[in-house]
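quick one: S-adenosylmethionine bound model?
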Amino acid sequence: MNPKDKSTILVTCSPGLVNYLRTEVELLGYAVTAAGTVDVELEGDMYDAMRLNLYLRTAYSVLYLLRSFPCDTPDELYRKVRQMAWEELIDPAEYVSVVTRVDTPTIDNTMFAAVRVKDGIVDRILKQTGSRPNSGKERDNVVVQLYWRGKTCKVYLNTSGRKISDRSYRKTMTDAPMRESLAAALIMATGYDGTQPLVCPMCGSGTLPIEAALMATRRVPALLRSNFSFMHTKWFDEPAWQAMRAEALKQSKKRGGKTEFTPAPIIATDIDSWAIEAAKRNAQTAGVEHLIQFAVCDFAETAIPEGQGIILLNPEYGMRMGDVKQLEETYARIGDFFKQKCAGCTGYIFTGNLDLAKKVGLRTSRRLVFFNGGIECRLLKYELYAGTRKHREC
Ligand SMILES: C[S@@+](CC[C@H](N)C(=O)[O-])C[C@H]1O[C@@H](n2cnc3c(N)ncnc32)[C@H](O)[C@@H]1O
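yep, here:
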C-alpha cells in the first residue's frame, strides 16, 4: 500500500445528485469510469482523493480503494483484512472506525461484518507493532469502509471521515435546513453563475444564498474545514496538503476578491428574524456575508432587483413542519408574487409536496427530482415572462 499508487476512487453523494457530482468531477479534469445512482468512480491516488475532498460541492465522501477480494464468510473476511499491511497506514496511537455496507446472503448482520473488519485491522497492527489502536463509532479519525456485495468485498479508506457536505459554516441552525450539497446542486440546476441577480425569499438558515455566493466567487468549499480522515493516516503529506490549500485559496481570491469580481445582487429574506440572524452568522462564518443583502419580511415584500434574475424559494411543505391549509394559501400567494413582482425573471420552487405546488397556479417549464431527508422533492421551474400569463395548472 502506497499513497502514490493509482487505485479506484469512489465518490458518493445523496440520491438525485449524481449527475451534478459527475459534472463536478469531470470539470476537475478526471474521467468518470463508472457511475451508479449515488456514486461515481474514477482512477487516482491519495493526492487526487485529497483534492476531491477540497473541491467537490455535491459529494458526501471520497473513498480510496485499498483492496478488493472474493469472500464467502465472516472468517474469510477477517483473515483477508488481517493480511493487509495496516501498520503502514495506521499508527497504533490512532482511533479507527469501520463503516459497512453489506448485501450478501452470507451474513445479515452488518455490525458483525464491521466487528470482523475492525478485529482484522487491530489484530494485525498489534502483531506488527506491539500495540493496538482504539476503535469505535466516531468518524473524526481513521475511517475504513467495507462494501460486501455478493461474493466480493471492497475495503476502502474513507478519506473524508465526516461527510464533506458539512462545510463547517452552519454554526446556527433553524428548522428544516437543507444539506449544503443539496443546496449547491439546486443552485447548479438553475444555471446560476453569479452574473445574474439571485433572490432567495424564505432563506431559513441561509444555505441557498450562501452556497450561491461561494459558487459565484469560486470559493473552494472545504477551505473552512480543518479535519478529514486522511489527515489521521501515516500517508498524510501535510506539505502537499498545505500547497493544495494555498492553491485553492489563490483560486478563491482570484474571483472572490471584493474588488476583482462582485456577483450581481444576492438577496436573502425570511419572515422569521431569528432565521435571518442565523443566516447572517452562517454567511459571516463562510466569509460571504458582504455579498448577501439580508432582510426580514414576508416573501411577497422582497425587493426584486432589475435584470433577468433567478427567484428561488424553499417553502415548508407540510410534512415535517407547517400546517397544510395555511400552506395552500402561501403557495397560491407565491404564484401571485411571481406574476405581479417577478416578470422577466425565472422562478424556482423547491418542494416535497406536489399538491401544494399546484396551488401556485402557473405552468412549470421543468421539474427536476431531488431528495431531501429521504423525501422525494421537485425543483419546479417557472418562466415568468413579462406580461400576464394565462396558463393555469389543472
Ligand atoms: C423549509 S424552510 C427553508 C430552509 C432553508 N432552505 C435552509 O436551508 O435553512 C422555510 C422557511 O420559510 C420561512 N417562511 C415561512 N413563511 C414565510 C413567509 N410568508 N414569508 C417569508 N418567509 C417565510 C420560514 O421562516 C422558514 O425559514
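Residues 174, 176-178, 201-202, 204-205, 207-208, 270-272, 275, 298-299, 314-316, 330 surround S-adenosylmethionine (CB under 6 Å).
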